[in-house]
Amino acid sequence: MDSWVRMLFLFACIVPALVECRVRHYKFHVVQKNTTRLCSSKPIVTVNGKFPGPTLYAKEDDTVLVKVRNHINHNVTIHWHGVKQLRTGWSDGPAYITQCPILPGQSYLYNFTVTGQRGTLLWHAHINWLRSTLHGAIVILPKRDVPYPFPKPDKELVVILGEWWKSDTEVVINEALKSGLAPNVSDAHTINGLPGIVSLANCSTQDVYKLPLESGKTYLLRIINAALNEELFFKIASHEFTVVEVDASYVKPFKTETILIAPGQTTNALLTADQKSGKYLIVASTFMDAPVVAVDNLTATATLYYTDTLASSPTVLTTPPPRNATQVANNFTLSLKSLNSKMYPANVPLTIDHSLFFTVGLGINPCPSCKAGNGSRVVAAVNNVTFVMPTTALLQAHYFNMKGVFTADFPPNPPQVYNYTGTPPPASSQTTNGTKLYRLAFNSTVQIVLQDTGIIAPESHPVHLHGFNFFVVGTDVGNYDPKKDPKKFNLVDPVERNTMGVPTGGWTAIRFRSDNPGVWFLHCHFEVHTTWGLKMAFLVDNGKGHKESLVPPPKDLPKC
Ligand SMILES: *[C@@H]1O[C@H](CO)[C@@H](O)[C@H](O)[C@H]1NC(C)=O
Ligand SMILES: *[C@@H]1O[C@H](CO)[C@@H](O)[C@H](O)[C@H]1NC(C)=O
Ligand SMILES: *[C@@H]1O[C@H](CO)[C@@H](O)[C@H](O)[C@H]1NC(C)=O
Ligand SMILES: *[C@@H]1O[C@H](CO)[C@@H](O)[C@H](O)[C@H]1NC(C)=O
Ligand SMILES: *[C@@H]1O[C@H](CO)[C@@H](O)[C@H](O)[C@H]1NC(C)=O
Ligand SMILES: *[C@@H]1O[C@H](CO)[C@@H](O)[C@H](O)[C@H]1NC(C)=O
Ligand SMILES: *[C@@H]1O[C@H](CO)[C@@H](O)[C@H](O)[C@H]1NC(C)=O
Ligand SMILES: *[C@@H]1O[C@H](CO)[C@@H](O)[C@H](O)[C@H]1NC(C)=O
Ligand SMILES: *[C@@H]1O[C@H](CO)[C@@H](O)[C@H](O)[C@H]1NC(C)=O
Ligand SMILES: *[C@@H]1O[C@H](CO)[C@@H](O)[C@H](O)[C@H]1NC(C)=O
Ligand SMILES: *[C@@H]1O[C@H](CO)[C@@H](O)[C@H](O)[C@H]1NC(C)=O
Ligand SMILES: *[C@@H]1O[C@H](CO)[C@@H](O)[C@H](O)[C@H]1NC(C)=O
């Protein structure tokens, strides 16, 4: 290409409206920035100095090239959460799973094509706890001339929910690992980076995100939960949402006053400005129905205002559901169904090659140095295996046939059958450890029943699978019954997503087809549980020919 042609092409791609552009170029500079919240200032890790980070836009079928340059004194990787990464596992991002970290001063080009997905996703750091401030939205628009399967909104808005710590989150988690106990909960929640009206004993602030609406117009809210450790309720006074999509998959539209959203999940909802001019309170607060689990109970607030409202108008208030509102949560979850139209069919696998049963939960292991934990520490496990992070990336180890990094013997069932959610508890709360993968042939069909356990306490687990979407075919409380429960599965229009909550003291069954070769992480998206070891990975072999094979590693792939 002549250099002036290349210049024109690049320019056109930066201003997407100009031409139909198939390649989107982004530059992410990972830099520190001092930021003030809750009456104190601290340096946080950001992309391009923004918190939340910049929104990445693409059209379905576009290739996205993001050059990430690390300017901070900490290793970095970025994950494009929910992007299927067909054959491009090198660009998925989880540290030591698909790549070695980008070292301070280094850069890496993420290179992937967005195929068969449209809607909202998120990008975030995938190393230690950096994602608390290193995150942003991914907006995937439908192909040119393909309409939304719902009335076209007048405007679209990104709403990112998060958590804010007064301390550095790396210090928070390192302190917890040393003690063996649970890490501190966050100090506040945020809506588009701001906690709202806060009045604590020694700190009162009015850092309020303001959302303007014009009377009569309809808005598409692209809602993202970027929090580390908390499922959230989201609600707006006097307004109802029409949910149309989750995790970049269309759903049958339904109306609700309250949205439930777990870390890593996204929800697109229509909101019509059909109320009297005025100001209305927006709230985001924690859902956690396991009473023993400590949570941040501060509600984040924002203000929705009609643009013709007088500055002096009072705000119409609302209160979020209580933290243990299981019914409100279930109501939302059970309303989610795939659109399953001719254009967007739900291709649920009906026959299963690998039927897996995974217990997910906590454990207690010895830790002589853990004084606060009385010589033991909290861990987490899948099928009683606490995953040990390797020191070289698993995808490299697989591709280059490096020995001794992992074993492909992850157990398809837990080692013991017991009353997972009840009594008596198992004789020992200890786990084993290892870097174990479960191997799948290309294009196998897989069912996983994820069963919460009551070791220490039953608790919900928003489990995320990389590399695939799955269908949520069933969920309930108690122990999964392999005889009775499959009869109740929805194999017609189950919701399709990449992250779903295993209910407290219950189970969830998912199905997917392993049509993407590579190494794919499965983990709880509560970062504290990931740190503790609630994670494993699938190794999917190549199929036939290059179109069913992993692309070769890029030249700038970081080394360990
Ligand atoms: C407010 O008080 C709490 C507890 O007394 C303390 O931990 C926190 O650092 C204080 N915050 C500020 C901004 O002084
Ligand atoms: C950022 O804040 C810290 C205190 O938290 C201060 O020491 C430092 O000088 C500030 N840096 C800049 C660039 O403002
Ligand atoms: C992106 O990856 C594809 C293979 O998937 C490769 O053909 C292409 O050259 C890469 N682009 C850049 C800019 O490296
Ligand atoms: C965690 O909370 C404890 C108790 O409030 C406090 O002493 C400690 O400093 C906190 N740790 C961090 C890293 O903020
Ligand atoms: C919120 O949590 C704090 C600390 O755990 C506790 O002191 C406070 O009473 C709680 N507030 C409410 C309303 O539950
Ligand atoms: C929710 O918590 C409140 C306050 O702790 C308690 O009174 C109530 O019984 C709980 N509700 C349920 C359904 O557990
Ligand atoms: C459940 O949803 C229905 C229909 O939207 C609503 O009428 C009902 O009040 C909801 N129940 C709870 C507990 O939220
Ligand atoms: C499992 O535990 C629960 C709660 O303790 C109890 O009600 C139930 O009967 C137990 N199930 C079996 C099969 O033992
Ligand atoms: C988990 O593994 C440990 C160590 O081998 C064992 O002691 C424990 O009984 C196992 N627990 C379960 C529930 O299988
Ligand atoms: C794994 O378990 C073994 C044996 O119990 C123990 O010696 C080792 O320290 C553990 N490794 C990690 C990383 O926890
Ligand atoms: C996977 O298997 C299904 C069912 O046998 C088949 O329809 C589909 O074409 C296969 N996909 C690929 C990518 O080979
Ligand atoms: C950064 O990553 C490299 C490569 O894996 C590793 O050797 C190094 O210890 C890491 N640095 C830190 C501070 O974790």
From TrEMBL:
In its UniProt record, a GO molecular function of this protein is: hydroquinone:oxygen oxidoreductase activity
Say yes or no: keyword Glycoprotein present: yes
Output the Gene3D superfamilies linked to this UniProt entry. Cupredoxins - blue copper proteins
Q: Which GO terms describe its cellular component?
A: apoplast
Domain Plastocyanin-like span(s) in chain numbering: 31-144, 156-307, 409-543
Reading the lineage from the top rank, the first entry is Eukaryota
The enzyme's E.C. designation: 1.10.3.2
A single Pfam family it belongs to is: Cu-oxidase_3
Q: Which InterPro entries match?
A: Cu-oxidase-like_N, Cu-oxidase_2nd, Cu-oxidase_C, Cu-oxidase_fam, Cu_oxidase_CS, Cu_oxidase_Cu_BS, Cupredoxin, CuRO_1_LCC
Q: What is its main location?
A: secreted
The residue range of the signal peptide is: 1-21
Q: How is the cofactor bound?
A: Binds 4 Cu cations per monomer.
Subcellular location field:
Secreted, Extracellular space, Apoplast
Q: Which reaction does it catalyse?
A: 4 hydroquinone + O2 = 4 benzosemiquinone + 2 H2O
Q: Which GO terms describe its biological process?
A: lignin catabolic process
Cofactor dependency = Cu cation
Q: Which family does it belong to?
A: Belongs to the multicopper oxidase family.
The record's annotation in PANTHER family points to: LACCASE-4, MULTI-COPPER OXIDASE
Q: What does this protein do?
A: Lignin degradation and detoxification of lignin-derived products.
Q: What is this protein called?
A: Laccase
